[in-house]
């Protein structure tokens, strides 16, 4: 399999995860009165944080948006890395290794704190990136064109 195709597939999967994350972040409460009460409490309690008045909801919403932006960024970087893997595989390998480690870590964190959806997405992305690394390495060793 060609490494750039694996990386592009991981890019698209990460883009889908970003969109689903944002949809989940913006959905209205659907678990009844307790969820509505929790969101209301998070929005109503404000505290001074380094001179800014913020609520727990501000932190929840802000960190959620940062996660979505981070996934969008990773999607773009994976797409660009696919081009680099095709034109200069030796230079692409360190980036693939770093992203592989990041996605394995995301999978572990998702397993520990979230639910099966992000676990599966992150495991698949890690596998795609890891395979791209392996195929790039083996092709460089064998002197093949990537």
Task: Using brief descriptors, characterize the structure shown.
146 residues, two-stranded antiparallel ribbon, 2 strands, single chain, 82% helix
Q: Quick check: average pLDDT?
A: 94
Cα(first) to Cα(last) distance is: 10 Å
Q: What's the shape? A: elongated
Radius of gyration: 19 Å
Relative helix content: over 70%
The number of helices is 5
How does the major sheet shape up? 2 strands, antiparallel
Series of secondary-structure elements, N-terminal to C-terminal: HHEEHHH
Instruction: Give the tally of structural domains.
Output: 1
Describe the protein's architecture and organization:
This protein is mostly helical and 146 residues long. The chain has one domain (3-36, 69-141). 82% of the residues lie in helices and 5% in strands. It has a two-stranded antiparallel ribbon with strand order 1-2.
